[in-house]
């Protein structure tokens, strides 16, 4: 059983800026969980020795490929080569650190079942220091990875409604796939995914496959398509695509359909996106405990 005790972080692992989720707080929680597993005997075969929430571990770049609109898909695997599955739950994120100390959190969209690997999507912003440095690296180069952190519990809900913007869909792809793989899962899944253009829809083939399941609906919103009549000819059979963003009237309709269900509301996008959907949901008196933001960039979320 691969379940060593959590490794204590070093002083350099703390950025010293007073994070709400300081690495030393993470260490205390991981120690408590490890003690519970030891006491209850609820161990497993996850490779906890290869990924730590408190210390960085070496991972090599296995592959890197562009997906369009400056978005790239990266696969990282433990080094040296290892067998097993990493202890990451979908909706959690890992921190990837480069040699110069730059670090960013990413949500894995897929996990290797037997090679201790994970896939992430990253957006290369003009002038972005982290992505600029990472894009200069080659397959086989090594980065440092710490995690997992965050994540949400979804057990006990009749339905999960997800709002994703741009690369924010990465927070939901793995979760949806894992739930659909469970033959016993009857949770209703609804993804509302907003992109600028059809070419910017990430993992479109995977999303179309998910939408074929009886308990999963995928709705795409294209906010900046210029020639809608021409572009609509490129829609796939049974794709549910709307021009423009989700309006407040549209939100009212979405929320009304959930009134008889115990629903978990998940949001992941940029700050403006997160604020818009958070406020829209809150305006219908949905309990804050049932609303989860998977992007923590908003330090002072404004509640209207």
Overview in brief:
The protein is α/β, with parallel strands linked by helices and 304 residues long. It is built from seven helices and 13 strands.
Tell the overall outline: globular
Q: Find the structural class using helix and strand composition.
A: alpha/beta
Strand content: 25-35%
What spatial order of strands do you see in the largest sheet? 4-3-7-1-2-6-5
Averaged pLDDT, please? 87
- Poorly predicted segments: 296-301
**Helices and strands, in N-to-C order?**
HEEEEEEHEEHEHEHEHEHE
**Major β-sheet profile:** 7 strands, antiparallel
Q: What radius of gyration results from the CA coordinates?
A: 20 Å
Tally of strands? 13
Question: How helical, in percent, are the residues?
Answer: 10-25%
Helical run tally: 7
End-to-end CA span: 49 Å
Question: What report would you give on this structure?
Answer:
This protein starts with 22 loop residues before the first helix and ends in an 11-residue tail after the last strand. It has helices at residues 23-40, 129-136, 170-180, 204-210, 228-231, 248-256, 271-282; strands at residues 57-68, 71-78, 92-97, 103-106, 110-111, 117-123, 142-150, 159-165, 188-195, 216-222, 240-243, 263-268, 291-293. 23% of the residues lie in helices and 27% in strands. The longest helix has 18 residues, at 23-40. The protein has 7 helices and 13 strands. It has 304 residues and is of the alpha/beta class.
């Amino acid at each position: 059983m691969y379940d060593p005790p959590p490794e204590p972080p070093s002083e350099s692992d703390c950025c010293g800026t007073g994070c709400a989720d300081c690495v030393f707080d993470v260490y205390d929680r991981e120690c408590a969980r490890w003690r519970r597993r030891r006491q209850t005997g609820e161990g497993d075969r996850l490779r906890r020795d290869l990924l730590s929430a408190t210390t960085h571990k070496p991972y090599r770049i296995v592959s890197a490929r562009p997906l369009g609109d400056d978005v790239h898909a990266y696969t990282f695997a433990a080094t040296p080569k290892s067998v097993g599955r990493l202890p990451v739950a979908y909706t959690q994120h890992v921190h990837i650190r480069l040699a110069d100390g730059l670090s960013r959190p990413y949500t894995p969209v897929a996990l290797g079942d037997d090679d201790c690997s994970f896939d992430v999507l990253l957006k290369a912003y003009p002038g972005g220091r982290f992505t600029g440095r990472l894009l200069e690296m080659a397959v086989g180069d090594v980065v440092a990875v710490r995690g997992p952190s965050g994540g949400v519990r979804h057990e006990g809900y009749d339905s999960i409604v997800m709002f994703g913007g741009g690369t924010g869909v990465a927070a939901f792809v793995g979760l949806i796939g894992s739930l659909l793989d469970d033959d016993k899962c009857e949770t209703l899944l609804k993804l509302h995914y907003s992109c600028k253009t059809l070419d910017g829809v990430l993992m479109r083939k995977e999303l179309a496959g998910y939408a074929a399941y009886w308990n999963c609906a995928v709705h795409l919103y294209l906010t900046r398509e210029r020639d809608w009549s021409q572009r609509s000819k490129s829609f796939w059979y049974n794709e549910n695509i709307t021009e423009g963003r989700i309006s407040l009237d549209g939100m009212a309709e979405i929320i009304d359909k959930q009134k008889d269900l115990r629903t978990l509301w998940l949001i992941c996008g940029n700050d403006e996106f997160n604020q818009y959907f958070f406020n829209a949901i809150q305006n219908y008196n949905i309990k804050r405990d049932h609303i989860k933001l998977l992007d923590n960039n908003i330090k002072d979320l404004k509640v209207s």
